[in-house]
Write a structure and sequence with these properties.
By secondary structure, the protein is mostly helical. Helices cover 56% and strands 7% of the residues. The strands form two sheets. The protein has a three-stranded antiparallel beta sheet with strand order 1-4-5, with no helix packed on it. It has a two-stranded antiparallel ribbon with strand order 2-3.
């Protein structure tokens, strides 16, 4: 029987494109957003009034919230500049034009690299905790060479991070997953073991059972408040980069088109701040994801 958790929703940009290309629907959408943002009812949007829209665009692009990273903050600033182009404020028509361009750009990116949204609700994780595969994986983790004085708490956190999305665990690199799922699961063990004791205090059998309890608690947490995970199933293996490097004329063409699309100063030089933008423009041609999407 297929788990409800195993089914994923594919986001391929088609709905965004449909919205923008349906003039009546897009005009209604713009009207609603403009009224919502135009707090002073001036008929124009200034820098401050644009920020909620810019923040939503950032979230849609997969960026962390403002203030969490200088790199992502720079992108938020660039999106704001894209709207204003040096002006103090913009009217509804100008807002509509820039928004349409941004949304179509997002749709193009999603068409190239669709995102799969998967609901993680604890079903797969509970099934995994009861499987033979779990015991094999737990023993493998316990047997990995590590510092003898490493605490049981650290070992359990590391072990939870090793469980894949396919087995029902959302990525523990996500701060909210660590805070709301992993840490409560580990803390739940404090009534039966000393979490600060060295890992050597647990033998293999005891570790498997303690780890299972943590996984089951995490599964219960996910059942109470499921998590939606966005992931790409495209493989980035460098083959497109190698192919482009072998074809000198194609490489020069791609670099020339990228260079033409970037803003330069009066001396023809490119500001360092636009290097990231250039890499993102190159990404589709060299078979790479947008900068920062895949950690490696």
């Amino acid at each position: 029987m297929e788990s409800r958790e195993s089914r994923a929703t594919v986001v391929d940009g088609s709905q965004i494109r449909h919205l923008v290309e349906n003039k009546d629907a897009f005009h209604r959408y713009v009207d609603e957003k403009f009224v919502e943002l135009d707090k002073d009812k001036s008929g124009k949007l200034n820098v401050q009034e644009l920020q909620p829209a810019v923040s939503k665009i950032g979230i849609a692009l997969g960026l962390p919230s403002r203030g969490s990273s200088p790199d992502s903050d720079h992108i938020y600033e660039e999106v704001t500049k894209e709207f204003l182009h040096g002006r103090e404020s913009i009217n509804k028509e100008e807002f509509s034009s820039v928004l349409a361009d941004i949304l179509l750009g997002m749709a193009d990116g999603l068409e190239r690299d669709p995102i799969f949204l998967q609901n993680i609700n604890g079903e797969e994780l509970q099934r995994y905790a009861n499987s033979a595969e779990f015991e094999v994986d737990a023993l493998a983790i316990y047997s990995e060479p590590d510092e003898e004085d490493k605490s049981i708490q650290s070992l359990i956190i590391q072990a939870l991070g090793n469980i894949s999305v396919e087995n029902g665990m959302p990525p523990t690199s996500d701060q909210s997953v660590m805070k709301n799922k992993v840490e409560p699961a580990v803390e739940s063990l404090s009534t039966c073991i000393n979490l600060h004791a060295p890992r050597g205090d647990l033998d293999q059998v005891a570790f498997v059972e303690v780890f299972r309890k943590a996984v089951e608690h995490a599964a219960w947490q996910l059942k109470v408040t499921p998590v939606t995970v966005a992931r790409s199933e495209k493989t980035y293996d460098g083959k497109s980069v190698a192919r482009l490097l072998r074809q000198k004329s194609e490489l020069e063409k791609v670099l020339h088109m990228t260079w033409k699309s970037l803003p330069r100063d009066r001396h023809g030089s490119l500001s360092r701040e636009y290097l990231r933008v250039g890499l993102d423009i190159l990404a589709p041609d060299v078979g790479l994801p947008p900068l920062g999407i895949v950690e490696e």
